[in-house]
Each structure stands twice: as C-alpha cells, then as structure tokens.
C-alpha cells in the first residue's frame, strides 16, 4: 500500500480547522500554494519571501505557524539536512530526497513502485513504519556535468535493494 494513501490530500488544506478565522485560512493557503508552486524545498524564510508578494502584511512568525500546522496535518513534510534550517516539501507521493553536496539543491526522487520498508531495510522487531524519509547525497545533474563527469555513485538503488548513494543514506521511521 502506498504511504501517501494514508495522508490527507492537498484539498484538505482548504478545510483545515480555521481556529482563528478566515484570515488564518488564507495565510495557510498562501503558504501551501508557495510550496506547491515550486518543488525546490524552500526554507521557512524562503517561503516567507514568496508569500510576501501575495500577502504583504504576513510576518515570518505567521509563516512558521502556518508551516507547523501544515506539517501537523500531514500535508507538508519537513526535510532536514545536517544542521541547516529545515526545508519544506509539499509532495505527498512517496519519494526520497537527493541532496547535492555542491550546490545544495534538494531534488525529489519518485518511487518506481510501492514497496514494504521491511523488504529493503532491517527493521527492529515490532516497529510499524508510518513514514519513510530516505536521503541520498551526491552531485545533481548539472553539478556533476560541470565537474567534468565525476559522477556520484549509483543513485537508483532505493527500489533495487541498496539505498547507499554518495556515501550516506538514512531512513527515519
Ligand atoms: Zn520532497
Ligand atoms: Zn548541484
């Protein structure tokens, strides 16, 4: 079963509890739209810069609040990379993240076919996986090309059985 089937659809955002009224719903919607408009995994500050064009009065604190709510509701994922500020991802399909160690870009790697986590990972006994966050590191296509074809190690291993890429892979359950 696809993990994304357990998550609310983007349409849910429109009907999330509007505890503080319409204004809050509008702000949340704008934050969500900014994430959907460009799948480049922006930080909260970057989201703030984008939303400001549409809602000039919005504050950074409000953007943080909106992001928190969206993450809580399961319509947005937080993406962590080392000690850098968290990034946000509104792609609800099962996917892994590819971090370019040169330019810092974060790319979604769609899953070729659904799989059981236990078919790829050695899971501790008794755990139940709610979400998978797999991370690959290496050079993105353009960085790899500009470095004279020094290609990062195989990156297609997620379904094939070996998720190691660029020397590091991690999964959180
Ligand atoms: Zn993503
Ligand atoms: Zn790159």
**Residues in helix, %:** 25-40%
Number of domains: 2
Question: What is the mean pLDDT?
Answer: 80
Distance between the termini: 16 Å
- Indicate the CATH topology of the largest domain: Arc Repressor Mutant, subunit A
β-strand percent reads 15-25%
Q: What's the number of helices?
A: 6
Order of helices and strands: HHHEEEEHEHHE
Q: Could you tell me the radius of gyration in angstroms?
A: 18 Å
What composes the largest sheet? Answer: 4 strands, mixed
**Considering the protein shown, what is the CATH homologous superfamily of the largest domain?**
Winged helix-like DNA-binding domain superfamily/Winged helix DNA-binding domain
How do the strands line up in the largest sheet?
4-3-5-6
Structural class: alpha+beta
What overall geometry do the principal axes of the alpha carbons give?
A: globular
Which spans have pLDDT < 50 for at least 5 consecutive residues?
1-8, 154-173
CATH architecture of the largest domain: Orthogonal Bundle
What would you note in describing this structure?
The structure is a single chain. The protein is of the alpha+beta class. It has 2 domains: 3-88, Arc Repressor Mutant, subunit A; 94-172, Dna Ligase, domain 1. The protein is 30% helix and 16% strand. The protein has helices at residues 22-37, 44-52, 60-72, 117-120, 141-146, 157-160; strands spanning 77-79, 87-89, 95-100, 106-110, 133-138, 169-172. The strands form 2 sheets. The protein has a 4-stranded mixed sheet, with no helix packed on it. Strands 1-2 form a two-stranded antiparallel sheet. Residues 100, 102-103, 105, 139-140, 142-143 line the site of one zinc ion (ZN).
């Amino acid at each position: 079963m696809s993990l994304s089937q357990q998550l609310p659809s983007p349409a849910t955002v429109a009907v999330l509890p509007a505890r503080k009224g319409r204004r809050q719903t509008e702000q949340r919607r704008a934050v969500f739209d900014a994430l959907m408009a460009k799948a480049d995994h922006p930080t909260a500050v970057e989201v703030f810069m984008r939303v400001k064009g549409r809602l000039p009065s919005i504050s950074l604190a409000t953007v943080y609040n909106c992001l928190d709510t969206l993450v809580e509701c399961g319509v947005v994922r937080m993406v962590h990379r080392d000690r850098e500020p968290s990034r946000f991802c509104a792609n609800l399909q099962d996917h892994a993240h590819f971090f370019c160690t040169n330019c810092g870009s974060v790319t979604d790697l769609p899953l070729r076919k659904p799989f059981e986590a236990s078919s790829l990972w050695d899971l501790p006994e008794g755990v139940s996986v709610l979400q998978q966050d797999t991370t690959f590191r290496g050079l993105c296509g353009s960085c790899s090309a500009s470095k004279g074809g020094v290609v990062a190690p195989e990156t297609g291993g997620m379904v094939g059985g070996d998720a190691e890429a660029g020397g590091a892979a991690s999964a959180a359950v």
